[in-house]
């Protein structure tokens, strides 16, 4: 007999929402673990705090207004409703592809819809916060009208691709909570200037499967602009959110926002720079802009987070013309980056000198798609293992600047440092560097969209913690040079892994437990480590047949297989192949979480450590199980009593 006790529901203690005057907020914000989640129309801050903090503030006489418990499960809506609507759109329209981006903590699917197949990509993402139910509704309605070519989307010209992700936080929606099932604010969990001091930002950047799904979605293609849909106000905000210092794109971002507002029919709709409204860290739009150059906006569509269903249609209608106009926003800069020697495309970035943010290209095609204000721009062109260049480009007032840029190799180490696979594991793995690199003191791992990893080297040994790295290839940088795409991290999702392979002349057969029709395969070889698409010639549910006639057998060749937002690897295809095999049941990804502290209230103040466990009858008899269940019940009732006391204290 197996006994499984899920403690996710208790992992996050209750959150209280209240209103606070701005001057009082300023005096207490750095003394207590509270989170600002918005502002009322009368200028009061909407704050969230846990039970203990709320009680301390009330005991201290802090004038909290309208104190109420944050989570309130909706009665007439569920994540399944939105999932079903998205599936119907995919079933009814051949031009729409249903995307499975991953699963929530409770196993709910994270679904998206893609219309189109090429670059550049427009993205509309909703439902970071589960209590903002109008957000997924507006994303789905825009997708529906675009597919049906209903006004005003009948005039949107077909170009590039549009990706819709209506509901990123299905568990939060089912709970009626801003937070995911672990009690983490997903819109504070991205890696761009992630801060532990935020309210419930997670144990570390990208600690949550929901934000990991967006991270993985960004691996292929170039998303050049994005709307992150929220509710709780009625405005459009552009980056930055973490600092009031203007971004290099301040002018063009403001122009796009003004164009949106001119077509938005919503009464009282207003515009702002994100940080000028209020400062946040680990925000989705900052990450998309900072790591990829995505011109990203936060769109707030309703003062009420969950307006009555009778009002939803008019709210959506107010925004349709503005969103259709945003979909016509075209890049005016299209560049391709190639290796000067091989002329093959390479991954790289454009950077405006003295600026932290980068503009990233398509790793497979080398293409950049971007929008800059007309005029002369100084741009640094960079790629791991290549000599950087600084160039001047002239952006025309009309039309598009197209060109090919080439970089010269500079201390590429891929010959000395052949590719290496580290399967997903909760245990550190030792990496013995080749003799030529035994004397280095450090190495750095980088991957676009992921936090950089600086690792120490001792006597030629490096410790790799694969469960802290996102799946796929990472580039290695040392004091002696760089090796692009040379460290491969195994897939953490147990639903995709390689079982076997078979070479038969120009054909390669890959066997899986399950593989979808949308799988893509890339071959990587040579010092430039360019990603070359490999044609899929046949598919069955457990096998891919590949045409590898254009893949050189004389090289060390590595394969990447992408399927439904997951990636697995096969290294050294023609030599001594290494397969990315199934990860263990418990990857340990959430072990060693920080303890609660005033500076990092990631999961509230409960003393219970939340983790799943599987216990056989021999390991836990019925008496122990009864005692544990009774203990959980007591804890639950104690928490409920604390909640009632706080409400009573405020209302007395």
List the topology elements:
Layout: E1 2-4, H1 8-11, E2 15-20, H2 22-28, E3 35-39, E4 45-50, H3 51-59, E5 65-69, H4 79-92, E6 96-103, E7 109-115, E8 121-126, H5 134-148, E9 161-165, H6 170-175, H7 209-217, E10 223-230, E11 233-238, H8 250-263, E12 270-273, H9 274-277, H10 284-292, E13 295-302, H11 309-326, E14 333-339, E15 349-351, E16 359-360, E17 367-370, E18 375-382, E19 389-395, E20 401-407, E21 420-422, E22 429-432, E23 442-446, E24 453-456, E25 461-464, E26 472-478, E27 481-489, E28 498-504, E29 507-512, E30 520-525, E31 530-533, E32 536-540, E33 543-547, E34 558-563, E35 566-571, E36 578-579, E37 614-616, H12 622-651
Parallel strand pairs: 8-9, 8-10, 10-13, 11-12, 14-20, 21-27
Antiparallel strand pairs: 1-37, 2-4, 2-5, 3-4, 6-7, 7-9, 11-13, 14-17, 15-16, 15-18, 18-19, 22-25, 23-24, 23-26, 26-27, 28-29, 29-33, 30-31, 30-34, 32-33, 34-35, 35-36
Helix pairs in contact: 3-12, 4-5, 5-11, 8-11
Describe the structure.
It is built from 12 helices and 37 strands. The protein is an alpha+beta fold and 652 residues long. The chain folds into 4 domains: 2-70 and 590-651, no CATH class; 96-135 and 169-326, Zn peptidases (Aminopeptidase, 3-Layer(aba) Sandwich); 333-407, Immunoglobulin-like; 420-579, Sandwich (Immunoglobulin-like), CATH 2.60.40.10. A hairpin with a 7-residue loop joins β15 and β16. The radius of gyration is 25 Å and the shape is globular.
């Amino acid at each position: 007999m197996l006994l499984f006790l899920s403690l996710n529901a208790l992992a996050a203690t209750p959150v209280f929402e209240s209103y606070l005057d701005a001057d009082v907020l300023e005096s207490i914000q750095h003394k207590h673990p509270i989170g600002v989640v918005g502002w009322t129309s009368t200028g009061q801050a909407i704050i969230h705090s846990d039970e203990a903090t709320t009680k301390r503030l009330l005991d201290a006489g802090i004038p909290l207004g309208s104190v109420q418990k944050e989570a309130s499960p909706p009665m007439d809506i569920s994540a399944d409703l939105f999932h079903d609507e998205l599936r119907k759109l995919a079933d009814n329209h051949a031009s729409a592809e249903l995307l499975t981006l991953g699963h929530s903590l409770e196993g709910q699917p994270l679904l998206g819809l893609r219309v189109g197949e090429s670059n550049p990509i427009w993205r509309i993402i909703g439902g970071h916060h589960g209590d903002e139910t109008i957000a997924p509704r507006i994303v789905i309605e825009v997708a529906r009208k675009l597919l049906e070519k209903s006004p005003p989307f009948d005039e949107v010209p077909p170009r590039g691709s549009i990706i819709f992700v209506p509901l990123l936080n299905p568990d939060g929606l089912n709970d009626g909570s801003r937070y995911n099932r672990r009690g983490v604010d997903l819109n504070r969990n991205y890696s761009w200037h992630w801060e532990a001091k935020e309210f419930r930002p997670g144990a570390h950047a990208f600690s949550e499967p929901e934000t990991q799904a967006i991270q993985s979605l960004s691996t292929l293609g170039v998303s050049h602009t994005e709307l992150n849909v929220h509710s709780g106000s009625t405005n459009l905000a552009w980056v930055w959110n973490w600092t009031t210092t203007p971004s290099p794109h301040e002018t063009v971002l403001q122009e796009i926002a003004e164009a949106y507002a001119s077509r938005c029919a919503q009464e009282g709709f207003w515009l702002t720079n994100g940080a000028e409204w209020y400062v946040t860290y680990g925000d989705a739009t900052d990450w998309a802009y900072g790591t990829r150059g995505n011109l990203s906006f936060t769109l707030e569509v309703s003062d009420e987070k969950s307006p009555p269903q009778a009002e939803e249609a008019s709210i959506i209608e107010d925004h349709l013309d503005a969103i259709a106009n945003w979909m016509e926003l075209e890049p005016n800069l299209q560049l391709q980056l190639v290796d000067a020697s091989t002329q093959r495309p390479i991954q790289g970035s454009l950077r405006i000198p003295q600026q932290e943010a980068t503009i990233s290209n398509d790793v497979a095609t080398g293409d950049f798609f971007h929008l800059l204000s007309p005029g002369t721009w100084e741009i640094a062109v960079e790629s791991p293992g290549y000599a950087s260049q600084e160039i001047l480009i002239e952006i025309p007032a009309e039309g598009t600047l197209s060109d090919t840029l080439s970089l010269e190799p500079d201390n590429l180490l891929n010959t000395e440092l052949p590719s290496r696979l580290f399967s997903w594991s909760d245990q550190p793995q030792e990496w013995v560097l080749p003799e030529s690199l035994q004397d280095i003191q450090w190495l750095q791992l980088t991957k676009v969209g992921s936090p950089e990893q600086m690792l120490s080297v001792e006597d030629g040994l490096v410790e790799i913690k694969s469960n802290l790295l996102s799946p796929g290839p990472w580039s290695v940088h040392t004091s002696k040079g760089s090796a692009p795409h040379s460290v491969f991290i195994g897939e953490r999702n147990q639903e995709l892994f390689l079982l076997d392979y078979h070479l038969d002349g120009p054909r390669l057969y890959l066997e899986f437990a399950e593989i979808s029709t949308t799988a893509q395969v890339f071959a990587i070889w040579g010092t430039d480590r360019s990603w070359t698409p490999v044609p899929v010639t046949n598919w069955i549910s457990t096998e891919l047949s590949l045409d590898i006639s254009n893949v050189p057998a004389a090289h060390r060749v590595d394969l990447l297989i992408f399927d439904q937002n997951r990636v697995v690897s096969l290294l050294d295809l023609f030599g001594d192949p290494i397969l990315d095999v199934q990860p263990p049941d418990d990857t340990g990804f959430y072990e060693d979480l920080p303890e609660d502290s005033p500076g990092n209230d990631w999961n509230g103040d409960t003393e219970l450590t939340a983790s799943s466990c599987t216990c056989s009858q021999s390991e836990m008899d019925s008496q122990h199980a009864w005692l544990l269940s009774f203990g959980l019940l007591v804890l639950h009732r104690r928490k409920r009593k604390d909640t009632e006391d706080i409400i009573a204290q405020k209302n007395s």
